[in-house]
């Protein structure tokens, strides 16, 4: 009888040890949570789309793109109708580019990649021409497609977003930096305080970069789209999401967002350049239905949050070591009980 009691208690102790680690792991909260009011619309490997609704207003949208999880940001443009060789701002080309609907960009990238996530508008362009030209440089697949024509526009406020496979950066545009950058893809925009109707509530497209894992490299790209915001509002939203650097792309009637056959920010304007987001390997999952109705606390933990919330293996080992003395004390207590039973 005493032997059975001892065995049963030892089994209970072992079960407690085995289940202690999962309990502690689940109690560890994720480091990242969306800013107040934003809820998850959809997600896939390395990418998330968030939305915030405003009473009587239009929603804000933010894409979070983790390049270190296999997600990609690709730069697209329409067909070049005239090369204009050597007529660019820095001695390169200043081509005329055909504009097209955002849906056409989506169809093109979706045909190339089954993990296509979203497309949005990109660079500024010269609206008085069709085909049009870009005021600022564009580099795609290692080739500088355009030098742009606006070297003297917004001096010191032209910013270039450099995109590698696993990192990104935003810095002030210079000819040397443009032509010596190892980044295969570069799109140029403007500083957040450039005078593009800064205090008016108009459609905006902004991009930002964030070093979310603290390794000294900007591995996370953020894309902001909305129908109505001031420049400082758009920049602040990205900073609330963690962006350390931000820049402004084309806005007004050019701002558009299309994701998985759904239009979130709609416009009929044709555009010569677009930004596509591609998920890593894996399928796209819609957010919980409750999130669609604005109940942000009930959404699923996203892939990015799940990665950030994993507990360190060393913590698990220390938990087990801390529990061993408890197990030893219980075994000694059982032995004393056994001796007393034997003596009486």
Tell me what you see in this structure:
The model is unreliable at 8-31, 288-321 and 337-344 (pLDDT under 50). 27% of the residues lie in helices and 28% in strands. The protein has helices spanning 2-27, 102-112, 175-180, 231-240, 289-292, 303-308, 313-343; strands spanning 39-44, 47-52, 60-66, 72-77, 80-82, 96-97, 116-121, 138-140, 143-146, 158-163, 168-172, 185-190, 202-210, 220-229, 245-248, 257-259, 262-265, 273-278, 285-286. By secondary structure, the protein is an alpha+beta fold. It is globular, with a radius of gyration of 27 Å. A 7-stranded antiparallel β-sheet has the order 15-13-14-3-2-1-19. Strands 4-18-7-16-17 form a 5-stranded antiparallel β-sheet, covered by helices on one side. Strands 9-8-12-10-11 form a 5-stranded antiparallel β-sheet, with no helix packed on it. It has 7 helices and 19 strands. The chain folds into 2 domains: 2-28 and 311-343; 39-296, no CATH class.
């Amino acid at each position: 009888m005493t032997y059975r009691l001892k065995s049963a208690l030892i089994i209970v102790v072992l079960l407690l040890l085995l289940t202690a680690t999962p309990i502690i792991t689940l109690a560890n909260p994720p480091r990242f949570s969306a800013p107040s009011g934003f809820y998850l619309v959809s997600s896939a490997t390395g990418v998330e789309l968030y939305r915030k609704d405003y009473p009587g207003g239009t929603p804000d949208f933010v894409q979070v793109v983790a390049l270190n999880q296999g997600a990609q940001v690709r730069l697209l443009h329409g067909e070049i109708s005239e090369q204009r060789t050597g007529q660019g701002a820095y001695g390169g080309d200043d081509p005329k580019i055909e504009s097209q609907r955002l849906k056409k960009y989506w169809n093109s990238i979706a045909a190339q990649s089954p993990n296509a996530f979203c497309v949005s508008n990109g660079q500024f362009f010269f609206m008085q021409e069709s085909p049009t030209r870009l005021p600022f440089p564009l580099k795609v697949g290692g080739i500088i497609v355009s030098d742009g024509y606006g070297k003297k526009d917004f001096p010191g406020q032209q910013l270039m977003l450099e995109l590698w496979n696993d990192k990104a950066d935003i810095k002030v545009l210079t000819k040397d930096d443009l032509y010596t950058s190892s980044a295969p893809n570069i799109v140029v925009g403007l500083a957040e305080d450039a005078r593009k109707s800064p205090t008016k509530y108009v459609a905006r497209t902004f991009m930002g970069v964030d070093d979310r894992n603290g390794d000294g490299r900007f591995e996370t790209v953020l894309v902001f789209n909305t129908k109505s915001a001031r420049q400082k509002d758009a920049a602040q939203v990205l900073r609330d999401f963690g962006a350390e650097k931000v820049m402004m792309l084309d806005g007004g009637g050019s701002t558009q967002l299309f994701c998985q056959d759904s239009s979130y920010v709609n416009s009929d304007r044709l555009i010569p350049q677009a930004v596509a987001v591609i998920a890593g390997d894996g399928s796209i999952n819609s957010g919980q239905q409750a999130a669609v109705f604005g109940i942000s606390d009930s959404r699923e933990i996203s892939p990015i949050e799940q990665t950030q919330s994993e507990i360190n293996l060393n913590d698990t080992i220390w938990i087990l070591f801390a529990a061993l003395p408890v197990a030893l004390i219980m075994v000694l207590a059982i032995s004393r009980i056994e001796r007393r039973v034997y003596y009486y």
